[in-house]
Amino acid sequence: MFVHPSASPGRPLRSRLVSLPRSAARSLCPASFGSRPAGERLARVQASPQFADGIFRNELPTRTLLPGTGGALLREVLFGAGRGHRRPAAPVPLYRPAPGAPAAAPGTGLRLTWLGHATVLAEIDGHRVLFDPVWGERCSPFGFVGPRRLHPVPLALDRIGPLDAVVISHDHYDHLDMFTVRALLATRAVFAVPLGVGAHLEHWGVPGERIAELDWHESAQVGGLTLTATPGRHFCGRGVRNHGVTLWASWVVAGSGHRVFHSGDTGYFPGFARIGAEHGPFDATMMQVGAYSEFWPDVHMTPEEGLRAHRDLSGGHPRGVLLPIHWGTFNLALHSWDEPVERTVNGARPLDVTVAVPRPGEPFEPAKEAPVDHWWRPVAAAGVRRREPGG
Question: Are strands 250-254 and 225-230 parallel, antiparallel or unpaired?
């Protein structure tokens, strides 16, 4: 059973590029840009406590890019000494399940499967939830340009099996993929999204009654699960006309016996401790640890900040398993391909944090021994010098 939030979404706003031929309008504003909230949905956006002066805002002042650093960033992207190490030097080893009958339900009641980047399949207390599903070859509005996959998807989308919910953290292209959303319509899952993001989904054909569109601190019931949108520190926007009018969120999914947390994209902020106090403790956290940079320190956590956030969610104690996400699949920053996972694993030891680093596609149960066999080391570029924290 899906209990829809009280506010009903409105119809998406159609393009008004009437002065251009239809083919030209489509090329300038492809369907993958999504749509801007309108009608009742826009009214709900504007009534949100997070919305002020025409845009959604973070709890803390947040810069998407440090002022005056654009030139230095461009030079580092094009000519930086570490640019040759931003991709794996060998094929990434994938776990591919054998064809045939689906795997039995997890004996412990909770199983996670990292499918690359921020995409995770969570099997929790008899339900199946897919976070931030991206099966596209590029995270871009266009198929011919933009960051390309560094490894194939380990599991074909038509083998994902039945789903109860698809949870989206925000509308950036590496977390929300139009073609994947359209394919997932066949699963009959509920789409749980932050406020305003439902406009994209309806524009792509998702029926409004299958969208649970939530502001921070709001919840929806899907079967025996409670899905709660919780704060993050980030930003949103897909096209030229919809920046700032869609919300971003982290997510708590609670079943009858287990609880998990998915960070989405976020900079570090004190809100993790409040989320843990209100919704924890968690059996596992799926924590963004990659795509950080000194050029945008407010909107993506470093591995050390991800570890700190994991502990914050448990009242400052090392509880539950941390699954590092948002690394290894797309080249979205300046650090080496394997730096996020190396810093996470090395930083976890003195903090007594349990970290699981499965191969893409490899399922594991957090209540059992966490997989960490350092499979990424033979894949990483030879001779890479990994930066230490603060270096």
Answer: antiparallel
| 17 assigned to some structural domain | no
Least confident of 24-28, 50-54, 333-337: 24-28
- CA 226 from chain center: how many Å? 19
Of all helices (H) and strands (E), which one includes residue 26? helix 22-28
CB burial of 311-325 (b: ≥16 within 10 Å; e: otherwise) equals bbbbeeeebbbbbbb
Q: Considering its fold, how many domains does the chain have in total?
A: 1
Sign of the dihedral defined by the CA atoms of residues 309, 93, 163, 134, in that order: positive
- The whole-model pTM stands at 0.90
Name the amino acid, one letter, at 186: A
Which pLDDT does position 386 carry in this prediction? 52
Question: Considering the domain boundaries, does residue 38 fall inside one?
Answer: no
| Span 293-340, pLDDT tens digits | 999 999 999 999 999 999 999 999 889 999 999 999 999 999 999 999
- E strand or H helix at 124: strand 120-124
Task: For residue 221, give its domain range.
Answer: 106-381
Query: What integer is the mean pLDDT of 231-260?
Result: 93
**CATH code where residue 326 lies:** 3.60.15.10
